[in-house]
Design goal:
The complex is a heterodimer of chains A (204) and B (101). By secondary structure, chain A is mainly α. Chain A has one domain (22-203): Four Helix Bundle (Hemerythrin (Met), subunit A) (Up-down Bundle). Chain A is built from 7 helices and no strands. Chain A has helices at 2-6, 25-54, 61-64, 67-92, 96-126, 139-171, 177-203. Chain A is elongated and about 55 Å long. Chain B is an all-alpha fold and 101 residues long. Chain B folds into 2 domains: 1-65; 66-101. Chain B has helices spanning 2-6, 10-32, 37-59, 67-100. In chain B, helix 2 packs antiparallel against helix 3 (37-59). Chain B is flat, with a radius of gyration of 18 Å. Classes of the chains: A mainly alpha (204), B mainly alpha (101). At the A-B interface, helix 2, helix 4 and helix 7 of A face helix 1, helix 2, helix 3 and helix 4 of B.
């Protein structure tokens, strides 16, 4: 009877050992969320690619953006991902003070990135960029800029809020190592999306 | 799998961070260099995929996860995104050709 019950998997699995992915339910659900959210960005970037291909002209990004500034933003986000990975490693090794320190550094990195993106938006809006028009001749350029970077910023802001809550709970001893791991996965996903945006929208 | 994660040393994260920075710097410098547009695009795409692989493998620990999970993530995101783009790309090119006639 016990064997029959065990054979009910996969719908009935209850531990890491019987999961086909060898991860807990929580982590599997975070991965499912990351995949679906990744496909949302994939849709945006595919739509952007379609418009690029069908447009006879496209603004020169080097003339519109300060690429060195955008590279600095990338540096900040990549660094915050490294501090997050260190926090996750420390959480799994039970080093409580290290986790709190690196979580707060990650939050700081996220806030700096948000500030830099806000500065970039402000600069472009002052130059006349709007959701449906811009001074560079191709209206879709600013539409995709605000859409894609706006969605990414929302994700960064959400990540900063999640990490702040996790850091607070960790300091009070009310957060498990897996909580830090899951928050870390989300934060790295935000970094991963930026890698694609930086290359496809700002450089190519 | 968590026990495998705990065996990872912090040095791995910071080496990954360094590689990501080098790749980013290389992409920015190449973007400003005068070279064939097609060659540049392929180099940038290759560097982008290398950066994504580094983040996925080491920061998101996919390198230490079961192959089922890795395939689920990589196949679903990358292949679906590529299929989506290559299915609609021909229409984009057709629109461009029609507008140039």
């Amino acid at each position: 009877m016990a064997e029959a019950t065990e054979n009910v998997a996969p719908l009935g699995w209850s531990s890491e050992t019987s999961s086909p992915f060898a991860v807990s339910w929580n982590k599997l659900m975070m991965w499912v969320f990351i995949i679906t959210d990744g496909l949302l960005f994939a849709g945006f970037l595919a739509g952007y690619g379609f418009v690029r291909l069908s447009s006879p002209v496209w603004p020169d990004q080097m003339a519109v953006f300060h690429i060195s500034f955008i590279a600095l933003m990338t540096f900040v986000l990549i660094s915050s991902s490294a501090t997050m990975a260190t926090a996750v490693g420390a959480a799994l090794q039970g080093k409580r003070p290290t986790v709190a320190r690196f979580l707060l550094l990650t939050v700081l990195g996220g806030l700096i990135f948000l500030g830099m993106q806000a500065y970039e938006w402000t600069s472009l809006i002052r130059e006349g960029a709007r959701l449906y028009s811009n001074p560079w001749g191709v209206p879709q350029f600013s539409s995709f800029f605000f859409l894609i970077t706006g969605f990414h910023e929302t994700h960064v802001l959400t990540g900063v809020m999640i990490l702040s809550i996790i850091a607070g709970r960790w300091l009070k001893g009310r957060c498990s190592a897996e909580g830090v791991v899951l928050a870390g996965l989300y934060w790295h996903f935000v970094d991963l999306v930026w890698v694609f945006i930086f290359t496809l929208f700002y450089l190519i | 799998m968590l026990r495998d994660w705990s065996e990872v040393r912090y040095g791995v994260y910071w080496r990954t961070w360094f590689l990501l920075l080098v790749l980013t710097l290389m992409m920015v410098l190449l973007d400003q260099a005068s070279m064939s547009r097609i060659v540049l695009v392929w180099i940038l795409l290759a560097a982008m995929l290398m950066k994504a692989s580094l983040i996925g493998a080491y920061f998101m620990h996919l390198r230490f996860e079961k192959l089922n999970l890795v395939l689920m993530v990589v196949v679903e995101i990358l292949l679906t995104a590529a299929a989506l783009f290559f299915l609609i790309a021909p229409d984009g090119i057709r629109i461009l050709e029609r507008s140039q006639r």
